[in-house]
Write a structure and sequence with these properties.
Layout: H1 11-18, H2 24-36, H3 38-58, H4 65-90, H5 93-105, H6 114-117, H7 121-137, H8 150-157, E1 169-176, E2 183-190, E3 194-215, E4 219-236, H9 240-252
Helix pairs in contact: 2-3, 4-8
Protein name: Anti-sigma factor
Organism: Paracoccus liaowanqingii
Length: about 260
């Protein structure tokens, strides 16, 4: 029994086959035709290989593995920040202030003893980072890094930095170890507060703490926590209220 010839296959049909523009039924007809014409089949195979090579050549290069990992961490941090902003819009600011007042006054389940709240752990780590930053300024073998790349910092640590006053000049930036993990220490020269450092670290738990002051014999400290990140400003003494105001302005940029 003779096999009937399929409908005539034209050059445009072959081009459409190479460009993957045919239906399954049409592709089957072309492939049956190519099976009976090895010379055409060889040419089509070359065209398919050329199309594949062109597609590979024109495709954007893949990200190196370190950059791919950083991009994934940045995406996770952005999702976490978006969730936090939604939560902050739901919780009234007045409620946050009221809860902080109850904790400070020692009322209800939020009560904290003076000894427990005296020196929060991020404050202790911030003081250590501040002292190390000042030490680095006097060391020739430890050059300062004044180029602050907040995007790279966030990708590496998951910490979202606030927007700083344009009058603050960055003197040094470094990743500093702490009991909670890597933190970011930035040393500034400021026109009103003198030399100020900002230390940010993931605190190990979710909380919302409005800016508050903490003093030592040598330093004034203003700190707050927003979500999982604690932020601490450290300056020399006699700058309590201006430092607290600066912390409040930094907090406002994180909403």
């Amino acid at each position: 029994m003779m096999q009937t010839e399929s409908p005539a296959i034209t050059e445009p049909d072959l081009d459409a086959y190479v460009d993957n523009q045919l239906s399954e039924a049409q592709r089957s007809e072309v492939e049956a035709h190519l099976a009976r014409h090895p010379d055409l089949a060889s040419r089509v195979m070359r065209d398919l290989a050329l199309r594949r090579d062109l597609r590979r050549a024109l495709a954007p290069p893949p990200l190196p593995r370190p950059l791919l990992g950083a991009a994934r961490r940045l995406a996770v941090a952005r999702r976490r920040d978006a969730q936090l902003r939604r939560m902050l819009r739901v919780v009234p600011a007045l409620m946050l202030v009221g809860l902080g007042w109850l904790a400070h006054a020692g009322l209800g389940p939020l009560s904290v003893t003076e000894g427990t709240a005296a020196t929060p752990t991020p404050v202790t780590a911030a003081l250590s980072a501040h002292q190390v930053s000042l030490l680095r300024l006097d060391m020739v073998s430890q050059p300062e890094v004044s180029d602050l790349d907040s995007v790279e910092m966030r990708a590496a640590t998951g910490i979202l930095l606030p927007h700083y006053d344009a009058a603050w000049t960055v003197r040094d930036t470094q990743v500093f170890p702490s009991p909670q993990g890597p933190g970011i220490e930035i040393l500034f020269d400021t026109p009103d507060l003198g030399r100020v450092s900002h230390f940010a670290v993931r605190a190990g738990g979710f909380d919302v703490t409005l800016p508050r002051l903490h003093a030592t014999p040598d330093h004034d400290i203003a700190w707050f926590q927003i979500g999982e990140t604690a932020h601490v400003l450290v300056a020399s003494g006699d700058h309590g209220q201006p430092l607290l105001d600066a912390a409040t302005r930094l907090l406002d940029t994180l909403y």
